[in-house]
Design goal:
This protein has eight helices and 14 strands. It has 337 residues and is of the alpha+beta class. The two termini are 34 Å apart. This is Fe2OG dioxygenase domain-containing protein. It comes from Vitis rotundifolia.
């Protein structure tokens, strides 16, 4: 049934102990590092930028993308409509509440174990592409412009994602068409997040540590409240967002398809004691025909590190298993496991 297909599990989560690293003197936090900055415009004229992109995907799994080509008015309109929706009375937002065992709609993130900290925030998840699979009963009519705004925003981010996948395929030494064909007419989901201010974060997190069970994630900071942290060499690195940039991260699927060359990195969201935060994460997945496994061109010398699954739905099933048993999705994808 249309709509139900878009309600399959769309995210990966590692159920691990976590530390609320809010203080700058916390030994588990390293504020001296920042993720790479990639200039999309320079890719049109400078070969050196391709090398920077390759290293960002290989060594960091995260980067900030500037000059990405998405019009400022498209982004700003999405920000306005998102905040207007979250300002609505609770009963009006609950008209779009997520159903039991569903993923689309308004509500709180799932809790998969009794001992896990609560994710302190409200989220609104929508399957955005392909347009034919949208479940419009979850798409708000208030604000009145919301549907048109998200439609335009989702299409623009799909263009950026397609371009990045093509550049990554070139860097991997793979025929770009092999990878881009897998993401052509692929699924896209948008998760809009509202994290209220929280003075006491001892029992809650914004979002607990996890990797993304998609191909590529594009994150938009709606307001300039910093909260995202990524794990690198055993420490958490706070990300200082560049206004106008998208924060890009490699998902589990790209790590698998690159045979481990590109890294899907654990990250989390911490809470701000004084200010609420809004963000929009847009997840990009291969199409239903794509097999999820290492690209054949990349396993000729050293062999495959990961299993190959027959389609994206089998991958989503494995993602659900990983959430329930507390092991990472990539753990389940490793051939030795």
């Amino acid at each position: 049934m249309v709509g139900e297909e878009m309600s399959k599990e769309l995210g990966g989560s590692l159920l691990v102990e976590n530390v609320q690293a809010l203080a700058s003197n916390n030994p588990l936090v390293d504020e001296s590092l920042q993720i790479p900055i990639i200039d999309m415009r320079k890719h049109m004229v400078e070969d050196d930028e391709m090398g920077k992109l390759h290293l960002a995907c290989k060594e960091w799994g995260f980067f900030q993308l500037i000059n990405h080509g998405v019009a400022e008015e498209v982004i700003e309109k999405m920000k306005v409509d998102l905040q207007e929706f979250f300002k609505l009375p609770l009963e009006e937002k609950n008209a779009y509440a997520r159903l039991p065992n569903g993923i689309e709609g308004y509500g709180q993130p799932y809790i998969f174990s009794q001992g896990r900290k609560l994710d302190w925030g409200d989220m609104f998840m929508l399957g955005s592409l392909p347009a034919s699979q949208r479940n419009m009963k979850f798409w708000p009519e208030n604000p009145s412009s919301f549907r048109a705004t998200l439609d335009k925003y989702s299409l623009e981010l799909q263009k950026v994602s397609t371009c990045l996948v093509k550049l990554m395929a070139k860097n991997l030494g793979n025929n770009p068409k092999h990878l881009t064909d897998m993401f052509e007419n692929g699924r896209q989901a948008v998760r809009m997040n509202n994290y209220p201010a929280c003075v006491n974060g001892s029992n809650v997190m914004g979002i607990t540590p996890h990797t993304d069970a998609d191909g590529l994630t594009l994150l938009l900071q709606v307001n300039e409240v910093q909260a995202l942290q990524i794990k690198r060499n055993g420490k958490w690195i706070p990300i200082t967002h560049i206004p106008g940039a998208f924060i890009i991260n490699i998902g589990d699927i790209i790590e698998v398809m690159s045979n481990g060359e590109y890294k899907s990195v654990e990250h989390k969201t911490v809470l701000n004691p004084e200010h609420e935060r809004f963000s929009i994460a847009t997840f990009h997945f291969p199409n239903v025909q794509a097999m999820i496994g290492p690209l054949q061109d990349l396993v000729k010398e050293n062999g495959a590190l990961y299993k190959t699954l027959s389609n994206i739905d089998e991958f989503f099933g494995l993602s659900q298993k990983a959430k329930l048993d507390g092991k990472s999705l990539l753990y389940h994808m490793k051939l030795e496991n």
